[in-house]
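User: Show me sequence and structure for the first protein, then do the same for the second.

Assistant: Starting with the first protein.
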Amino acid sequence: MNRVAKFMAVSRVQFEGDWAEAFPGVFAPDFPRLPQRATAGSAGYDFFSPLDFELKPGETLKIPTGVRCRISEGWVLMLFPRSGLGFKYRLMLNNTVGVVDADYFGAKNEGHIFVKLTNAGDRPLSVKRGEAFAQGVLLPFGIAEDDDASDIRTGGLGSTNRT
């Protein structure tokens, strides 16, 4: 297996600021567990919820995970809902699949990974703090022969080519 990434926590200051923006008036919890695989054969690294939450059908929630990931060049971290939650509740990521680029690690927001979820099902979903709710898979990628990208990321989430 190639060892191509390292999960770590964002700074406490970054986490508390992002938490306050996502959940005004709610005290930021201690850092959640870093993502990890459940078994030696798992492709996905489970992301654990930093809070108890319930999503009624049609509701959306943006979760600051407290996690960042240093990724080797030529690799990407793809985020998905946990399979069981997708099957049982039609839990979806709002951007369908989260793409965490290697250069996101150096962004102004420290590469803080957020997960925005929607319950597209017909029954409420409850997740307890510490339960796995999303998973990340590290994948290699290629570039086109005539690629000439030279910009450098400065912004954070959803802000490639923006300051």
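Switching to the second protein now.
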Amino acid sequence: MMVDFQKIITRDGLVLHGGVVWPKRKGRVAIILVHGLMGRFYTWFDRVAPLIAVAQNKKIAVAAFNTR
């Protein structure tokens, strides 16, 4: 699984790192994983690998980003 690392810069200048796993064929749907108060986005991808595999075959992107 190849994670396309991204970042979001908030209005107040905070950088939130994240990543997207794109589907094998272009689609119009994405799953956005929002985690709780602790942890980092990169720990999610291994945990949801089965979900990502199914999503990729159904043209669904999967994204996870750090939150404040």
